[in-house]
């Protein structure tokens, strides 16, 4: 069943490995294409606005400089000469003139019969004095050219209208326009402007872009002149850019999908082979034990050790416990590993217990073990084989072993009756709580390395607060406390200050082989007697 499920999951992931990268490539191409076209539209709108602002600002500067010089008859020869000189020295101004009551009385163009009615202003920018704008103005006797006329305090400037949006767009179907921002009045455009485009009009000094209908629209708004520039690119350009990107990205996506499928198949094959490899490893006695010392903080004595299963293949490959333990749980081989654990402890324990009479060995029991009443008899046999007295063998269970209390409570009770203290490991990382702990007859609570690591983190961190709560809870239940994963002197100091009695970790010792641990325990005995 496990093999079938693994094959089905592998097949599903393989299909996803092909489909997902392809979908992601299409999505990424669309996203990148849209972003690129929006940036291009924003650039066009920015260019139109910058050119319009420069033209308007140029006229404002000319008007402020020239107005004090125009004295007497505004259409007198001297004033016309001043206007002609100023227009010739300007970049965008074709001519300067004088307006009164919508009439262009005269201009530096010096055209006979030059007075004519230009009509009311199309838009007014609220400056002091106001800047009035007239568009689509035809000046008699100079052809069919359209002019934009800017007027301020009677002085006017004639500007060729087409020059305001004279921006290189690479295509004639890109719409450019300039509007009055206050009432969205259209000043001029090079193509039809859709009113819906103006719904994204941003605040003063800002720009915005979006896909509106069949166009990618961008609007740039002036910070000072109450005008805004619009650009709109047909969405067909987005499709073309997306297809161009797909030409580059699809091969990459397919390669990534192939790599993903290969990795999944490799891992699945490895997973399918793992149960058989564990069985073979048990037959060939490839599993062995190392012992992580448990230290009493007050005295510094090594009072016990946790038996840790390790696996080394004949080719020298080391398989991590995080890999083979999970695989053993999934395929129902935990009881076989536990049996091997008991065999190895039975061989090692007499040497360790002989080296130190008040030393204990802790055995890790799985959730499957703690729910099996038969484990009690097996522990009793092991205790006899080791010649262990009360408190020289400990049982350690994880939070998962507490999820079926109706079975676990009886097993824990019978172990403790045999003189085998019971500790709960990984507390706080799963679903155990105070109510769970109160339901079981336990002796020790083991603090996970995750919480120990928080000690030297940020002051007042969430994990640090939880650590204090766990310690206080254990004290209230009169449980001994063991902290694992202690690696720094700072952690040791804080744990001692919090009242933790026992610790494990690389600060004190790495896991040791039985012979090395027995030798260290024998050296410790004379020191204890002297003390």
Kindly report the oligomeric state of this protein: single chain
Q: What integer value in Å does the Rg equal?
A: 43 Å
Going by helix content, strand content and strand pairing, the class is alpha+beta
Largest pleated sheet: 8 strands, mixed, barrel
Strand order of the largest sheet: 13-14-16-17-18-19-20-21
**Proportion of helical residues:** 40-55%
Distance between the termini: 60 Å
* Inertia-based shape: rod-shaped
Q: Give the number of DSSP strands.
A: 21
Q: How many alpha or pi helices?
A: 13
Beta content comes to 15-25%
Return residue spans where pLDDT drops below 50 for at least 5 consecutive residues: none
Defining traits:
eight-stranded mixed barrel; single chain; 531 residues; rod-shaped; seven-stranded antiparallel sheet; 45% helix; 23% strand; alpha+beta; 21 strands
Q: What does this molecule look like?
A:
With 531 residues, the protein is an alpha+beta fold. 45% of the residues lie in helices and 23% in strands. The protein has helices at 2-66, 77-88, 236-283, 321-330, 334-355, 367-370, 374-386, 405-417, 434-439, 449-453, 462-476, 489-498, 514-530, and strands at 95-100, 103-107, 116-117, 123-125, 131-138, 146-152, 155-160, 175-180, 185-189, 207-212, 215-221, 227-234, 287-296, 302-312, 318-319, 360-365, 393-398, 422-427, 444-447, 480-483, 502-503. It contains 13 helices and 21 strands. It is rod-shaped, with a radius of gyration of 43 Å. The mean pLDDT is 81. The strands form 3 sheets. It has an 8-stranded mixed barrel, surrounded by 4 helices. A 7-stranded antiparallel beta sheet has the order 3-2-1-7-6-5-4. Strand 11 (215-221) and strand 12 form a beta hairpin.
């Amino acid at each position: 069943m496990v093999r079938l499920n693994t094959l089905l999951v592998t097949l599903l992931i393989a299909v996803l490995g092909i489909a997902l990268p392809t979908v992601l490539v299409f999505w990424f191409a669309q996203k990148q294409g849209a972003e690129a076209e929006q940036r291009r539209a924003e650039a066009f709108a920015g260019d139109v606005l910058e050119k319009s602002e420069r033209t308007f600002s140029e006229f404002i500067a000319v008007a402020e400089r020239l107005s004090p010089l125009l004295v007497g008859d505004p259409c007198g020869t001297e004033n016309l000469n001043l206007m002609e000189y100023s227009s010739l020295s300007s970049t965008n101004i074709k001519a300067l003139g004088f307006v009164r009551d919508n009439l262009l009385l005269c201009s530096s163009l010096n055209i006979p019969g030059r007075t004519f009615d230009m009509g009311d202003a199309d838009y007014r920018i609220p400056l002091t004095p106001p800047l009035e704008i007239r568009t689509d103005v035809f000046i008699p006797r100079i052809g069919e050219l359209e002019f934009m006329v800017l007027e301020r305090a009677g002085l006017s400037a004639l500007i060729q209208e087409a020059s305001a949006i004279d921006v290189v767009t690479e295509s004639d179907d890109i719409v450019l326009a300039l509007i009055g921002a206050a009432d969205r009045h259209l000043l001029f455009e090079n193509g039809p402007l859709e009113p819906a485009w103006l719904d994204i009009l941003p605040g003063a000094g800002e720009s915005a872009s979006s896909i509106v209908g069949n166009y990618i629209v961008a609007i740039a708004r002036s910070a000072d002149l109450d005008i805004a520039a619009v650009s709109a690119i047909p969405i067909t350009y987005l499709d073309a850019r997306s297809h161009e990107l797909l030409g580059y990205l699809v091969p990459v996506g397919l390669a990534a999908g192939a790599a993903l499928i290969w990795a999944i198949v490799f891992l699945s094959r490895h997973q399918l082979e793992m149960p058989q490899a564990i069985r073979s490893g048990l037959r060939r006695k490839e599993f062995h034990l190392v012992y992580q010392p448990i230290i009493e903080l007050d005295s510094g004595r090594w009072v016990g050790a946790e038996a840790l299963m390790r696996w080394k293949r004949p080719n020298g490959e080391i398989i991590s416990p995080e890999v083979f333990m999970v695989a053993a749980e999934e395929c129902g081989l935990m009881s076989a590993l536990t049996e091997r654990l008991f065999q190895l402890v039975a061989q090692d324990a007499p040497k360790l217990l002989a080296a130190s009479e008040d030393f204990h060995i802790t055995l890790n029991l799985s959730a499957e073990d703690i729910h099996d009443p038969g484990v009690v008899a097996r522990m009793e046999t092991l205790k006899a084989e080791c010649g262990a007295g009360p408190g020289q063998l400990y049982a350690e269970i994880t939070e998962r072993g507490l999820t079926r209390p109706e079975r676990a409570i009886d097993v824990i009770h019978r172990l403790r009756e045999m003189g085998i203290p019971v500790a709960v490991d990984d507390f706080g990382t799963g679903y155990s709580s105070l109510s769970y702990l109160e339901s079981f007859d336990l002796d020790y609570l083991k603090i996970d390395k995750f919480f120990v690591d928080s000690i030297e983190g940020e002051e007042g961190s969430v994990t640090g607060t939880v650590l204090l709560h766990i310690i206080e809870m254990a004290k209230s239940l009169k449980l001994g406390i063991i902290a694992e994963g202690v690696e720094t002197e700072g952690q040791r100091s804080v744990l001692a200050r919090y009242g933790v009695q026992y610790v494990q970790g690389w600060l004190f010792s790495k896991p040791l082989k039985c012979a090395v641990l027995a030798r260290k325990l024998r050296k410790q005995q004379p020191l204890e007697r002297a003390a």
